[in-house]
Amino acid sequence: MTLKHQKGRLSLDDLMIAISIEEEHRNQTHKMPVEHQPRANLIVGKQRVNKINSNSKAINKGKTTKANKPCWNCGQGGHWAKLCPNKKAKTWHAVVNMVVGGSSGTSTSGATEGYVSVQPKLLTIYEPCDWLIDTGANVHVCADKSLFVSYQAITGKTVSMRNSSTAEVLGIGSVDLKFPSGRILSLKRVHHVPTVRRNIISGSVIVREGYELAFKFNKVVIQQFEILGIEVNTIVEFREAVFLEDVFPMKIGKPSSVSLDDSLASTSIPEHVEKMTNVGVNPNSTSLTHEESDIPRRSKRARVVKNFGSDFVTYNIEDDPVTFKDAMASLEAKQWKEAVKSEMDSIVSNGTWVLVDLPSGCTTIGCKWIFKKKLKPDGSIDKFKARLVAKCFKQKEGINYFDTYSPVARLTTIRVLIALALVYNLSIHQMDVKTAFLYGELDEEIYKDQPEGFVAHGNERKVCKLVKSLYGLKQAPKQWHEKFDQTILAFGFTDHIEIITETKSFLKNKFEMKDMGEADVILSIKLIRSTDGITISQSHYVEKIIEKFGYQNSRIAKTPYDSSVALFKNESGVSIAQLRYSQIIGSLQYLANGTRPDISFSVSKLARCTSCPDKTHWGALDRVLRYLKGTVSLAIHYGRFPAVLEGYSDASWIVKNSGSNGCSGYVFTLGGGAFSWKSAKQTLITRSTFKAELCALDTTGTEAEWLFGLLSQLPIVSQPLPPIVVHCDSQTTIAKVRSRKYNQKTKQHIQVRLKSIRALVSDRVIGIDFVGTKDNVADPLAKGLDLSQVNKSRLGMGLKTHQ
Questions:
Q1: Strand ordering across the sheet containing 219-224
Q2: Looking at the structure, do residues 777 and 655 belong to the same domain, yes or no?
Q3: Start and end of every CCHC-type domain (predicted)?
Q4: Quick one: how far is CA 294 from the chain centroid?
Q5: 10 Cβ contact partners less than 8 Å away, ≥ 6 residues apart
Q6: Highest mean pLDDT: which of 82-91, 346-355, 375-384, 673-682?
Q7: Is 379 within the bounds of a domain?
Q8: 3-state class (DSSP) for residue 164
Q9: How far apart, in whole angstroms, are the C-alpha atoms of residue 629 and residue 648?
Q10: 560: preceding bond cis by omega (within 30 degrees)
Q11: What is the pLDDT at residue 471?
Q12: Which domain, by its residues, includes 391?
């Protein structure tokens, strides 16, 4: 009754107590014959025999009396069935969910009312050597003392049974269980209880000791795994496991089966114990009506093979040592020692630090050796470079540094200087400052540890107080820029070859420098001199890209972009080889910004889809690479004529295959070659082609203003500078800029750009001129073109084939 009327949830202990009380109560009221006692866990329910024939007529629901209604039990009238003096005993039939240990597969209708047995001893047939696994027990129990491999007698200890009785424990020891697979399971702290009829393995204790316990069909599988040691931070071997190192997951569809019988310790239920069956009892028959097969049911779900992409083999070609000890222990230790010595000689000769005692309240920043092999353009080793770098992550703003910035030279500036050198018939020389950052003088008080391998003997406890800058400090770029700026301004500029020699000597006296002569390579851009000018090329970089990404045998494309292909954002969220896509885009961006303006529009469009590329994006990217294969030798050529700086501006408005934003493009030429260009998506949505062209012209004017300021600071350029002519193919935009009329309907963001362009025109920074669309050099930077227009625009930007 406790379980039948219990509405709340019971704990496991309360449930077992309630079942034990119910079982004792039933044993007292019903003296069950021995032959009817269950031999295994049985779930026995009651099923009333249907007393109404399915073919009988519907029961009359009208009012009945004792006189006209016969008794259901005896068939006589005058009384109700519940008051019948000849009342028959109720007939119940049991539904048995599991039959264990019987010799027959039938069930009789006269079975005694069943009960639930939860005693662990009923899990299998009684044999003296059997071990039963009980997940409810909290200790191991063994009745046979001879099974113990180690034993210690104890007194005064008992264990509680599920039937509320207790048994005395005579000793505690260890027992080794041997399984059919040959594995041995060692049980610790096994209790010796001679009065128990079956040996018990505690499932909870097994799990706590690191084993995995699983019941699979007719087996009990016990498996042990090794885990990461907590105190010893190492990964230990995974015990009893099979690794398929040569098979990629899901690569070959259905993986081949591997037997793990040798890796798993298992125990089987005896063969004569019958399997679990579902028995339905017919009121008119005592035979079994249904039996489930012990063969696993095959799933009807369609299995889809997962695709993990193609297999790649990666080779580590950058074998530079990571630590000082690695460098000194490598095969190239001699070269690394020379590099380290050269670095320390520069630091000592420059007076970068002095050894002092660390003041109280001050902290030090660490330092680390960085090793790198410098390579030549052909891939051979140029020199071994060792650099001592400070750990700037320990610096705190306001304590170790106050202000910082890093001056970076634009490629546009380098190309302008190359073009001006041709126009004014000048030569370009290149010098390298060794340990440039070490010359910056510090304004802050910074202490650092002594470098590894160069700790001063007898002054091991002293620290280095930095007098000058060191690589890695947050303020190092700023301090070097200030130092070099002050030095070169103090000497002055000149264009005479004899004074240039004096300038080199002056710089060598101030800094440790290496004279590299006339420049041949600047930032991996080759300078090829000829009688009619200079050509800047990255053909070696193009070949490297094609070889790296496997396009040596691909067919050639005539144009870099197919305007008929619509490129939109991938809304599905499923990317295709995103990492490889981003690697190719990064390589192409450096190429497009260096010497190949003809692919700027394509790369700009494709770079917007880097986060989630799809098949369409990959097709467009493949076209760019195939176009590069056919134009490897294209390079920008600068000549002495025309010696005029010109700009071109163009825009593309919203079309069906370009998204919701237009595209702006501009290019500036000098000496017949492009030196500044850009292709980018517009930052606002325009409502007409006029507004799109106006936004592009504003962007072009901003670049022209920067170029005007740069040329104004060069003494070789005659002053004052004339306005930079910017060509635009929109007559409406030109008329709007030249008009002084104010239109109140013009949106504010358009009005701001219009005022900016008018201000540049009035200040004589730029001048706007009309050019036809077919003659607009910036046209390929705003849209995709056909082959004839691509070839024409390449000539306008100075892109020529070189040998």
A1: 211-216, 219-224, 265-268
A2: yes
A3: 71-86
A4: 44
A5: 18
A6: 673-682
A7: yes
A8: coil
A9: 28
A10: no
A11: 85
A12: 324-494
CA atoms within 13 A on the CB side of 21: 8
Q: For 486-555, give the DSSP string.
A: HHHHHH-----HHHHHHHHHHHHHHS-EEEEEE-SEETTEEEEEETTEEEEE-HHHHHHHHHHTT-TTSP
Cα–Cα distance list, 30 to 22, 25, 48, 328 (Å): 12, 9, 20, 89
For residue 662 the two structure tokens come to: 């237009």
Q: Which helix (H) or strand (E) holds 744?
A: none
Per-residue CA distances from 433 to 369, 439, 504, 520, 600 (Å): 20, 10, 11, 17, 33
Can you tell me the distance from the alpha carbon of 187 to that of 205, in angstroms, rounded to the nearest whole number?
A: 9
> Which parts of 217-350 are beta strand (E)?
219-224, 265-268
Residue 243 lies in a domain: yes
Q: What gap in Å lies between CA 688 and CA 671, rounded to an integer?
A: 35
At 235-256, the pLDDT tens digits run 444 444 555 555 555 444 444 4
Q: Which amino acid is at 771?
A: V
Same domain, 650 and 728: yes
Q: Within a domain: residue 531?
A: yes
| pLDDT per position as a tens digit, 524-569 | 889 998 888 899 999 999 999 999 898 888 899 999 998 888 888 8
Query: Which position has the token pair 């995103």?
Result: 578
Q: Max alpha carbon distance in the chain (Å)?
A: 144
Per the structure, how many domains does the chain have?
Answer: 4
Q: What is the mean pLDDT of residues 314-336?
A: 79
> Is residue 411 domain-shared with residue 537, that is, in the same domain?
no
Please tell me the distance from the alpha carbon of residue 386 to that of residue 324, in angstroms, as a whole number.
10
Please tell me the distance from the alpha carbon of residue 211 to that of residue 229, in angstroms, as a whole number.
16
Same domain, 630 and 678: no
Of 482, 789, 420, 795, the closest CA to residue 640 belongs to 420
Helix (H) / strand (E) element for 337: namely: helix 333-350
Pairwise pLDDT comparison (296 vs 343), residue with the higher score: 343
Q: What is the mean pLDDT of residues 51-62?
A: 43
pLDDT beyond 90 at 649? yes
* 732-762: pLDDT as tens digits: 889 888 887 766 666 777 788 888 999 999 9
Higher pLDDT, 171 or 477: 171
Q: What is the pLDDT of residue 48?
A: 44
Spatial distance between the Cα atoms of 339 and 345, rounded to a whole number of angstroms: 10
- Give the confidence band of 783 by pLDDT, cuts at 50, 70, 90: confident
Q: Can you give the pLDDT at residue 50?
A: 44
Q: Which spans in 351-467 are helix H?
A: 411-423
Confidence of residue 61 (pLDDT cuts 50, 70, 90): very low
In terms of domains, do 606 and 658 share one? no
In this predicted model, which residue has the larger pLDDT, 313 or 108?
Answer: 313
Let me know whether 652 and 792 are in one domain: yes
Same domain, yes or no: 624 and 604: yes
Average pLDDT over residues 353-378: 85
Question: Nearest to residue 552, comparing CAs of 629, 469, 464?
Answer: 629
**210 exposed, middle or buried (CB, 10 Å; 0-12, 13-18, 19+)?**
exposed
Contact (Cβ atoms closer than 8 angstroms) between residue 417 and residue 426: no
Over 80: is that where the pLDDT of 259 sits? Answer: no
Identify whether residues 336 and 434 lie together within a single domain. Answer: yes
pLDDT at 656: 55
Cα–Cα distance for residue pair 561/555, rounded to 1 Å: 15
Q: What tokens does 635 get?
A: 């390079």
DSSP bridge pairs for 725: 646, 767
In whole angstroms, how far apart are CA 32 and each of 28, 36, 95?
A: 9, 7, 18
Whole-number CA gyration radius for the chain: 45
CB of 42 closer than 8 Å to CB of 98: yes
- Residue 428, CB-side half-sphere exposure with 13 Å CA sphere: 21
User: How confident is the model at residue 113, as a pLDDT?
Assistant: 32
Query: What percent of the chain stands above pLDDT 90?
Result: 19
Per the domain annotation, does 311 fall within a domain? no
Rounded Cα distance between 531 and 581, Å, is 41
